[in-house]
Amino acid sequence: MPEQFKLITKHIDEPGYTPDIACYLRHGGYAGLRKALATPVRELAEGKKLSPQEVVREDVKASGLRGRGGAGFSAGLKWSFVDRRSGKPIYLICNADESEPGTFKDRQIIHKDPHQLVEGMIISCWANDVKLAYIYIRGEMPEGARLLNQALKEARENGFLGKNILGTGYDLEIHVHRGAGAYICGEETGLIESLEGKRAYPRIKPPYFPAVLGLYMCPTIVNNVETLCHVTHIVNMGASEYAKLGTPNNTGTRIVSLSGDVMRPGFYEIQVGKVTLGELIHDANFGGGLRPGRSLKAIIPGGSSSKVLKAGEVFKLNRKGADGQMAKVDVPLLDLPYDFDSLQQAGTMSGSSAVIVLDDSRSMVETLGNLSEFYAHESCGQCTPCREGALWLAKATHRLAHGEGRKEDANYLAHIAQNIQGRTICAFGEAASWPVLSFVKKFRDEFEAKGAADEAARAQGAGPVHGVKMAASPNHH
Amino acid sequence: MSFTVPSHLEAELDEITTHYPVKRSASLMFLHALQEHFGYVSKDAVEWTARKLGLQPINVYELVTFYPMFRQEPLGKTHVKVCRTLSCALQGSGELRERFCSKLGLDPHAHAPQTTPDGKFTVEFVECLASCGTAPVVLVNEELHHKVSSADADAILQKGKAA
């Protein structure tokens, strides 16, 4: 039976484990930082030399670490794009604005093991010649902000942060910056605008790639909380040992946030790709199955923005056969390995690794109504297709969910969504559209039946058919 | 003018301003601190922040209207934020919010923040609070409550009434 593999969450929720530095040090904390700072110059075959910082950057690349925030982009490559010749300061920002619906993994690290994040950040800053860094934490986590401030204070007092870190001459300062309740701040250029004291309107790329024109128009690295924690483990284990965890191109571990209709919702750390969606939902070590008497209806596999998967779907995945040749193989939904590439090949994404499970008691119309209201509320309002379209989607799904639908609403919703995606500055347009497009495509019969039933009821002169209310009417300020 | 920022708070904010190479960056931290102290962000607080950071008041005001956490009117002493988004909705956060509202004599279907006439409670539906594994969750002032049952909701109200 597959089990959790606890690398990042090793001590989280362990009896007696506390968020203070004494406890962290007792458990081997800051050994990774000491090891990183003592990295020797690496001699390459062609007579070239890598500086200690370059060695760590190369190791992060070699580890195969992919960003744990949502996009799954190679962390080492992201670092390699940083403009190091501009002469401007390089900034690093930890994206702790965890707000993708379904996701609650960074919360565990911030609240229960904040020094693990601080250590990962210090190593990452040192490796990238960063002197000033920020943790952008969402406003609704005041306790997390306090714990991080305390952890930073303790790190300073112990010589891990501030001037002349551990006698190496390296200076670094890290500050906590609080957001104020806007989902769009999780988008890295929106986050940067917000950190500059502005509305979090995402910037257009090109030219505003953070690696070149980020915070204060300086080169900037934005990494997720969990991603930064992995850096310490890569240093401690060595890149090649780390890369043995997980599966090829999907290395290391990931913390999966599991919620919805399972018996044991919670966060579970797995080796990437070593556990299937079915195991995550049904195994006693993970979700523990559905509620008694219920069957699976759908899975939202990577946060609310990911395309929904329907029970019974079978996907064509590229797999290496016994002859070493790549071939298309049929893989049923529950046998999908939970990793970046398999979910992408299944037409969706592992995103922020948040799995929301829906059983057969759930109305897909109401579920989509709930999600569409989220996107309508959270659109920053900068691009017209998203600002107007997201609200339009919310109103249309709300109407359909509350007995005033039409049979053509399935097409209508898809039409609106198609006119948002690809027409906006940031990926929010896709995030708002993908749930709609996938729900309508895969559960079309349910959407059409609801619309037809509403039409029939109206034709008979009855009032609107009210379903179970899951969400209040959209009311946006 | 009755608007006075206590010297200890001003000193704290002056220190926070040094965290940033560009003063404007401190805006959100100013607004948080002023809202925590005064209960909401008044026009005076906006103007004070603008003066301190060398900005036009509109540069600050546009933040107050953009970021959902900032309020332009006083809030109830106990601020109940019920998570509305999917995982909590699946576990009954809609019914939970209706319970809070109807027990306090507030409109159980209104979405926007509502404050009781005695100023003791504000009830609000908010978007995902990032604790979906312990749904439904409710943020009461700064404390997150997990797996909130009807009995837990009543206990929150009892505590708030006594506060």
List the helices and strands and how they pair.
The complex is a heterodimer of chains A (477) and B (163).
Chain A lengths: L20 H6 L4 H7 L4 E2 L5 E2 L1 H12 L11 H6 L10 E6 L9 H7 L1 H14 L4 E6 L4 H16 L15 E6 L9 H8 L24 E5 H13 L1 H5 L2 E2 L2 E2 L1 E8 L5 E6 L5 H6 L13 E5 L8 E2 L3 E7 L5 E7 L7 H6 L8 E6 L4 H15 L5 H18 L7 H10 L9 H15 L1 H16 L18
Parallel strand pairs in A: 3-4, 3-6, 4-5, 9-15
Antiparallel strand pairs in A: 1-2, 7-8, 9-10, 11-12, 11-15, 13-14
Chain B lengths: L6 H11 L9 H12 L4 H11 L3 H10 L11 E6 L2 H5 L2 H11 L10 E2 L5 E6 L11 E3 L2 E3 L4 H13 L1
Parallel strand pairs in B: 1-3
Antiparallel strand pairs in B: 1-4, 2-3, 4-5
Helix pairs in contact in B: 2-3, 3-4
Question: Explain this structure to me?
Answer:
The complex is a heterodimer of chains A (477) and B (163). Chain A has 477 residues and is an alpha/beta fold. Chain A folds into three domains: 223 residues, 3-Layer(aba) Sandwich (Rossmann fold); 105 residues, Ubiquitin-like (UB roll), CATH 3.10.20.600; 96 residues, de novo design (two linked rop proteins), CATH 1.20.1440. In chain A, 38% of the residues lie in helices and 15% in strands. Chain A contains 17 helices and 15 strands. In chain A, the strands form five sheets. A five-stranded mixed sheet of chain A has the order 10-9-15-11-12, with no helix packed on it. A four-stranded parallel sheet of chain A has the order 5-4-3-6, with helices on both faces. A two-stranded antiparallel ribbon of chain A has the order 1-2. In chain A, α2 packs parallel to α6, α2 packs across α9 and α13 runs antiparallel to α14. The termini of chain A are far apart. The C terminus of chain A is likely disordered. Chain B is α+β, with helices and mostly antiparallel strands and 163 residues long. Chain B has two domains: 60 residues, Arc Repressor Mutant, subunit A; 85 residues, Glutaredoxin. Chain B is built from seven helices and five strands, in the order ααααβααββββα. Chain B has a five-stranded mixed sheet with strand order 2-3-1-4-5, with helices on one face. In chain B, α2 packs antiparallel against α3. The longest helix of chain B is centred in the C-terminal third of the chain and has 13 residues. Chain B is elongated and about 50 Å long. Chain B starts with 6 loop residues before the first helix and ends with a helix. The model of chain B has no long low-confidence stretch (mean pLDDT 95).
